[in-house]
Specification:
The chain is an alpha/beta fold and 265 residues long. The chain is built from eight helices and eleven strands. The radius of gyration is 17 Å and the shape is globular.
Amino acid sequence: MSRFALGATLVIASLLVGAGGHAKPVQTAPRAPGTTITFPYEQRRLLHSRHGNGGLAYVTSAEVERGASLPVVVFLHGMNADGQMHPWFNSPYGDLRTVVEPLVSSGSVAPFILAAPTQTRFATGATVMWPRFDLGDFLDATERALDGLAHVDRERVIVVGHSAAGCNVEGGVLGDRVRTSKAMAILAIDTCVDDRVIPELAATAASTRVRFYWQKAWARPIEALSSACESCAIEEIELTPARTAHSAIVPEALRRALPELLPAP
């Protein structure tokens, strides 16, 4: 499907939003061969009123029985100054569906659900992104939207946070409602590292596998993180050019982490 056709599909989905900010699940046809469904999620709290469905779920195309329980990768984007809907599933960063689909089709990764909410309201401050994000609530919304196509395997949930999604100590991947949901793993990709964040990552790593991926174009006290969080798996990813490294690190981190965390049977 062309970029124009995909964009048109998402526009149609947005038109289904009523004046009260409510929306219904909509199945779309992305360029990747799996199944994409958009659905309402925290519309009034996280999105401007003009925006459509804030949640998105992609079921990879590998053959599985309808209603199968599949692992879930929840992706939280960083700052969204332009107010883009699903910014990692079309523009401006590319489409993560086309990143994960080859991992599954090649047999490196088990079939899974890639799910992501969107934040456009108050999305320009790194330390306030994803306030009070409730992982359990989002998984419930994803399950309802899938409507039996697949079920969420609560024992195999990976939460991925890029950039500002790991900068708010009371939200995003660091929020207590992620920690208490007992995710299988947390992937912090090129997020903040400072005196606020380091203790929270260390506390999370006490009960959950934490992987931290970073690149040198953004200078941070990585040694301090390594010292404070011995349980964290910290990996530098070398990328060039530096001007695009902050976005290019996301697909590369997923290609490294998912085959190990969700190996194909």
